[in-house]
Amino acid sequence: METALEATGLTRSFSGIRAVDDVSLSIPAGGVVGLIGANGAGKTTFVNIVTGYLRPDSGTVTCGTRDITGLGPRRIRRLGVSRSFQIPQLFLELTVFENLLLAVRVAGTNRGGFLHPLRPANDARAQAEVDRMIGRFRLEPYRAQPVGEVPGGIRKLLDVAMATVDHPQVLLLDEPTSGVAAKEKFGFMDLVMDALSEERAAVLFVEHDMEIVRRYADRLIVFHEGRVLLDDTPEHVLADADVRRFVTGAKA
Ligand SMILES: Nc1ncnc2c1ncn2[C@@H]1O[C@H](COP(=O)(O)OP(=O)(O)OP(=O)(O)O)[C@@H](O)[C@H]1O
Questions:
Q1: Most buried of 32, 155, 175, 177, CB within 10 angstroms?
Q2: Ligand 1 touching residue 20 (CB < 6 A)
């Protein structure tokens, strides 16, 4: 199967502590992979390295056949690896439409070269891409509302939509359901996963909610103290004694 993203031997220390320690993993094109682990296991550090927010001390990251190790976040975004954040990074005074337009400009793979993110909204292609995302993520009712006035769940959805503009090959979602009301989490994930599947993006999502990983991941990777403890089907991983002991806290 074609590989969308591959990390090999990634290592990163902070003050002598190995937050990510010789991690190798791959995400197949179109795959949906969950990443779990206790607090401090290195999940966010891994996502930050892959998306260019942190440099690794050693190791490589490739997207398709392209080596993206150590490139900056914008460059990596343009090469097809995108992310959302645990706490959405949005402009609260701007509308949903305007936030998406900024995301399209920043993603800026746009055939004509780089567009300044704050240029007036006058190019048809960018607006068409925004309209496509508004439809894909069912954001039409909120289109003209300032983001500061929309519900938290809609902000999370908008954050994922902003990460999805311009056809990324791989999306890394950092705790997509944190901040989403418990009764809305499945509806939220159904919408997100359907949209990402339609976009044919591979997904790696960091998640603490085991109901969510069981339902949406077709493979699960477990981090423990910066290393890959297990990489298998959700069924096998969630039944594993070490995973129960170190991560999920469930009794064997
Ligand atoms: N910028 C930093 N400076 C110093 N230490 C850091 C930094 N970022 C992460 N760490 C440390 O690296 C280790 C891994 O942290 P990381 O945030 O990647 O874990 P995590 O699995 O994402 O945890 P959580 O589930 O709580 O978000 C922790 O010991 C953390 O304290």
A1: 177
A2: no
DSSP string of 113-146, one letter each residue:
----TTS-S--HHHHHHHHHHHHHTT-GGGTTSB
Q: What is the ipTM of this complex?
A: 0.96
Q: How far is the CA of 17 from the centre of ligand 1 (A)?
A: 10
Q: Does the pLDDT at position 79 exceed 50?
A: yes
pLDDT digits (tens, 9 = 90+) for 172-192: 999 999 888 889 999 999 999
Q: How many CB atoms lie within 10 A of CB 144?
A: 10
Query: Cα(91) to centroid of ligand 1, in Å?
Result: 26
| 179/223 Cα distance (integer angstroms) | 23
Whether the per-residue pLDDT at 114 is higher than 80: the answer is: no
Residues 6+ apart with CB under 8 A from 89: 159
